[in-house]
Amino acid sequence: MSRLSVVLPAYNEELMTAKVCRTLKEILDHEGISYELVLVDDGSSDGTWNQIEQISEQDPNVTAVHFSRNFGKEAAIVAGLAQASGDAVAVMDCDLQHPPETLVKMFRLWEQGYEVVEGIKTNRGKESLLHRKSAGFFYGIMSRATGFDMQNASDFKLLDRKAVESVLSMPERSMFFRATSSWIGYRSTSVLFEVQEREAGESKWSARSLISYAFRNIVAFTTLPLQFVTAGAVGCFICSLILLVYSLVRYFTGHAVEGYTTLLIVLLFIGSAVMMSLGIIGYYIARIYEEVKKRPRYIVSKIIHGGKKK
Ligand code: UDP
Ligand code: MG
């Protein structure tokens, strides 16, 4: 019988972990689906690991992974995928914002032969207008980069074993799971789901962390910003040609262009364009630097396989 692994990255989720496990167990047992839960504690500073340890020691269907510190959700997802042994592997948040009923739907679609089942949000939960607009801009760029509509993409997905192996075979350090799982191809479909309200605990994202997450993922996935640099250079060149012709015409007709102001404007404009371009290129170099160091994506301090400590 085929087995489903559910990967749950958890960071400071002490209020939710036990409840999530209970809910998933009830639903999956009721549906007669054989399963394994892979709980990844992403270096929580609260009692999350204690909870996870307790759950896994009592239940042979739970694998628990403990990080040495907080490595971020993407790392926790990859660690979970690496530990999962099921024929199908689902990734869902550890806060019940991804409804477990949808998980069952995803599994049924997988049984019908789909190899990648993506969860698509029908709503974006409670978000400010600014948040929504900037998320729209970010996903616009990501959609162009991947060639898939990413506007309402989420990390709630189910992958076939083959697809999991493909994701794990990618050597890059900075993984953007949401886009990578579309990029790998395979026979895919999607299910719509409604993002639930968070019952307890709080979202781990601040405006600052979201902005840095967006930049990191754009750079990890596309070189489009580098093309902006080239486009900017072409734009500047055209402007300078126009200005040149204009100044020459003025000069030969006896009304030379006023020197100082024009010079200052042109200088400042070119200066900022060059610095901005350097900034973009510098950001890519920083990411390349991080990749070539080849540090591990995460460090595991402890793994518990259903009752047995390792
Ligand atoms: N998460 C994680 N590491 C982090 C931040 C978050 O593993 O550094 C987990 C978190 O425990 C949750 C999921 O990622 O299971 C989604 O986080 P959150 O609910 O804060 O995000 P939101 O739903 O607000 O997008
Ligand atoms: Mg959440």
- State the major sheet: 9 strands, mixed
Distance between the termini: 27 Å
Q: Output mean pLDDT.
A: 86
How many DSSP H or I helices?
Answer: 10
Bound molecules: uridine-5'-diphosphate, magnesium ion
Low-confidence stretches: none
- Strand arrangement, major sheet: 7-5-6-4-1-2-3-8-9
Shape label:
elongated
Helix content: 40-55%
Tell me the radius of gyration: 25 Å
Q: From the helix content, strand content and strand pairing, which structural class follows?
A: alpha/beta
Provide the β-strand percentage band. Answer: 15-25%
Find the count of extended strands (DSSP E, 2+ residues).
Answer: 9
Element order: H for helix, E for strand: EHEHEHEHEHEHHEHHHEE
Question: Any overview of this molecule?
Answer:
By secondary structure, this protein is an alpha/beta fold. Strand 2, helix 2 (48-58) and strand 3 (62-67) form a beta-alpha-beta unit. The two termini are 27 Å apart. It has a 9-stranded mixed beta sheet, with helices on both faces. The chain is elongated, with a radius of gyration of 25 Å. It has helices spanning 17-31, 48-58, 73-83, 100-111, 129-146, 161-168, 177-183, 207-221, 224-252, 259-292, and strands spanning 3-10, 34-41, 62-67, 88-91, 116-121, 153-160, 188-193, 300-305, 308-309. The structure holds uridine-5'-diphosphate and magnesium ion. Uridine-5'-diphosphate binds at residues 9-11, 13, 42, 70, 72-73, 76, 93-95, 97, 203-205.
